[in-house]
Design a protein that fits this description.
- The protein has 341 residues and is α/β, with parallel strands linked by helices.
- The protein has two domains: 2-151 and 290-336, Quinone Oxidoreductase, Chain A, domain 1; 155-286, Rossmann fold (3-Layer(aba) Sandwich).
- The protein has helices spanning 39-45, 92-95, 130-133, 152-166, 180-192, 205-213, 243-251, 274-280, 291-303, 322-325, and strands spanning 2-8, 11-16, 28-36, 55-56, 60-68, 79-82, 125-127, 135-136, 171-175, 197-201, 217-219, 233-238, 253-261, 283-286, 315-318, 333-336.
- Strands 3, 5, 6, 7, 8, 15 and 16 form a seven-stranded mixed β-sheet that branches. A six-stranded parallel β-sheet has the order 11-10-9-12-13-14, sandwiched between helices.
- Strand 12, helix 7 and strand 13 (253-261) form a beta-alpha-beta unit.
- The radius of gyration is 20 Å and the shape is globular.
């Protein structure tokens, strides 16, 4: 079968590999139907993220089950959501909801991100522990509406949903940037979850426009013009990937507030304004999202029509154009399969 590999900065190639087969009763084999480009995928493609190839690519997957073991919990023909991280659902970490730290796998085990588990831009992928991993895709939602529900939308959800549950009606600030779709998702989800005020700051006009379509107030960040932090937001989200913008988000967090960094900082050291954070009692979180752990609540929220995630999709293309388009400047690309299935 054919599978897309990242080789090096700016270079992808399709390779012929063996078709994956069931290896356990709880396994399933899934045919990817739709694969969204994760924010990180763009930065792997253009060399900003320091990952070395070659490895299979693509990890935000909606697919169709084509084979399943007797204990897989799914049947051929089922349309399913495939979480991007591998997890067993049985270990202590998974039971606590920390599916990004599953004890059955090495750290950072995931599809399409440099490890030997296959990738979504392919004709088929094996899903172990399918009885836990796979979730039914709501029949009323299209693949475009479910784009990025494997990774980027859960990333935005975890930055706002639990904190708004604890503080209904709280004010939310999102500083956009490098994690470009995650920041937009965080802002839109905050609106749909009933936040009192949602301000999205970003110097990119295209991203501001998308945040506005999801109900947020959007303004330029304008740090170069001397914009000062406003110490008034109970929940802040840093999606910038830039240290000055991270500092701005942290200093804009109100007393006893919480700031979540969803962007990855590749520098070995990042400066934090610890003294004012200490005095205000700010909680700062930076981590990978445990996507499978938050998916049930998120899928229900989207299925009920509260959040229109397809607003962030800027183009839909066939799989066969993925190699050429992977470093395009679009905010969110979705690839639909045109491979033999």
């Amino acid at each position: 079968m054919r599978q897309l590999f990242f080789v090096e900065r700016g270079k992808f190639e399709w390779r012929d590999i063996a078709v994956p087969a069931l290896a356990a009763d709880t396994d399933a084999v899934v045919r990817p139907l739709s694969v969204a480009r994760c924010d990180l995928d763009l930065y792997i493609a253009n060399g900003v993220a320091p990952l070395s190839g070659p490895f299979p690519f693509g990890h935000e997957v909606i697919g169709e089950v084509i084979d399943a073991g007797p204990a897989a919990g799914v049947r051929p023909g089922d349309r399913v959501i495939v979480p991007f991280q591998l997890s067993c659902g049985r270990c202590a970490s998974c039971q606590r909801g920390f599916t990004a730290s599953c004890e059955a796998y090495p750290p950072r085990a995931a599809y399409g991100l440099g490890m030997n588990y296959g990738g979504g831009l392919s004709e088929a992928m094996r899903v172990p522990f399918a009885d836990h991993m796979l979730l039914p895709a709501p029949t009323a939602l299209t693949n475009a509406q479910l784009a990025s529900i494997s990774d980027n939308i859960p990333d935005g959800w975890r930055a706002v949903a639990p904190h708004l549950k604890a503080r209904p009606g709280a004010s939310v600030l999102v500083v956009g940037g490098l994690a470009q779709s995650v920041g937009i998702y965080a802002a839109g989800l905050a609106v749909s979850l009933g936040a009192g005020r949602v301000l999205y700051l970003d110097d990119d006009p295209g991203r501001r426009a998308l945040a506005e379509t999801l109900g947020a107030t959007a303004e330029p960040l304008a740090l170069a013009e001397g914009r000062e932090p406003a110490d008034q937001f109970e929940i802040t989200v840093d999606a910038s990937g830039l240290q000055p913008a991270l500092r701005f988000a942290l200093l804009s967090t109100a007393r006893d507030g919480v700031c979540t960094a969803v962007a990855i900082y590749f520098e070995p050291l990042v400066g934090l304004p610890l003294t004012p954070l200490y005095m205000k009692g700010v909680t700062f979180q930076t981590s990978r999202v445990s996507a499978r752990g938050v998916l049930p609540d998120l899928v229900e929220h989207i299925a009920c029509g509260h959040f229109h995630s397809d607003a962030a999709v800027t183009r839909t293309l066939p799989f066969s154009l993925a190699a050429e388009a992977m470093d395009a400047p679009d905010i969110k690309l979705v690839f639909e399969t045109d491979l033999a299935g």
